[in-house]
Amino acid sequence: MSARENTAVPSERRARWVLGALLLLAAAQRGWNAWAVPPLAGYDEPAHGGYFLSLLLEQRLPHPFEGWVTFHPPFHYLLGSAVWTLLSPLGPHAVTFGLRAIGSLGGLVAGWVTYRIARRLGGGATEALVATALVLFVPCAVMAASMIGNEAFAAGLAALALPSILALQEDPRRRGAGLRAGLFSGLALATKFTGLYVAAACAVPFLRGDLDRAGRRSLAVAALALLAVAGPIYARHVVLTGSPVPMTRTREPLARAERSLTLREHRVSDYLWFPPSAILRPSIFQVPGRPADSRNRNPAMTSVWGLTHASIWYDPFATRLPLRLHRDAVVAGPLLALLGLVPTGVMLLGLVDAARRLIRTRGRAPDAPLALMALAALAMYVLFTWRAPALSSVKGAYLLPVAPAAGVFFVRALGSIPKRARAAILVLSGAAAAVSLGIFTCGLLFPGAILGAGGIAEWKGYASALPGAHIDDALTWFLGVP
């Protein structure tokens, strides 16, 4: 063994120790948040709780249009119902912790996969570790991990498919990799419609003219595994609603709620500008010269990418930080949004480069599945936000399944940046992850937001309009609301 190889072994060992420390730190933060964050303050949490109670109290899958979030595929809710049954003798706090632990585990998986595939594609250890820290501690991932919802868990399942998809990109004849890719892609699709992103990536290794019989068998294994898991769910949606991806957003009372969060219909210009005020005031409520109030609406957030950036790097909907903190005097939001520009900009450079390789190699580049996955996600996101103009439809959490791919783009872009600039980027990106860790660890710097009397009254109104959705039962179970 050469001297160079001798030094590489301990260096790689140190990188693995650092990776383990990052994962332990993220697990500790997520565990604490799962325990300490007040219940039902996250995105649509009373409605998600009602979905679980439909399964538990009635022993049946609800109709996709029966409740607020019942259009979602059921895998997360079936798993969560088992966790609920196991922990219910310990009370609501334990049940809340258990349900949040599902998403927390998904976030940890996404971080681990980010490091693994970044190194597999030739990234350096330091760069891969910083990318992993970003995926673990970016605010939208931390918040999603401690909500009673399906976003973080779906992202974790999508991440589990990526190593096998990249193995198929190297050799599409690997039937074991095809089975794993199809299985985890199917589970992601069975959890949330964003599983379509990784399903698109799963197809890339087989889109080649020289696919032989062994490759076609592997394709058949992957397709059958995906269809066996997700096919019955989407067939049920078609039978019951006429669409494989039904949405409740156009039905009352959801349509009324969306109208209350709609400034106006989207314009093409909303996708072409990024106002500085989206960085200085990364909140839908933060209006200059006016107190933070749920009736205020920040006009800068008509910029789709401005609000997307704010929802990735802060808490624009006041789901984690109390509304009183959404004012100019609190520098946490502008600081994080500004720091977030650095890794986001580098990641976008990497995405553009990966898209060029995808086209130039006709899908044969080692990272081609990741590039197509990201492009498909952005296309679907643009289409969805165009058709759904409410501010609540523009959430960075909808892009969470692409986080490991974004980490790889970040790492690969750094390889073409001069060494001094690269060091500065790594420091600023690490600082962004550290600042997010401090701000979004419940109670460390800021208290957690609660579902107050006004929010409870609003959800009670929705519950009366959706009597079969068990929203009122969720409010009673988690908050003791009569």
**If you average the pLDDT, what whole number results?**
93
Unreliable stretches (pLDDT < 50, length at least 5) are: 1-7
Instruction: Assign a percent range to the helix content.
Output: 55-70%
> What proportion of the residues form beta strands (DSSP E)?
under 5%
Annotation, overall tally of beta strands = 0
Please work out how many helical segments DSSP would assign. Answer: 19
- Using only C-alpha atoms, the radius of gyration works out to 22 Å
Q: How many angstroms does the end-to-end distance come to?
A: 71 Å
Molecular shape: globular
Helix and strand pattern? HHHHHHHHHHHHHHHHHHH
| SSE class | mainly alpha
Largest sheet: none
Describe this structure in words.
The structure is a single chain. By secondary structure, the protein is an all-alpha fold. The chain contains 19 helices and no strands. The protein has helices at residues 3-36, 45-58, 75-87, 92-120, 125-137, 139-145, 151-170, 175-189, 195-203, 213-241, 254-260, 277-280, 304-313, 332-360, 368-387, 403-414, 419-439, 453-465, 471-479. α14 (332-360) crosses α17 (419-439).
In short:
It contains 19 helices and no strands. The chain has helices spanning 3-36, 45-58, 75-87, 92-120, 125-137, 139-145, 151-170, 175-189, 195-203, 213-241, 254-260, 277-280, 304-313, 332-360, 368-387, 403-414, 419-439, 453-465, 471-479.
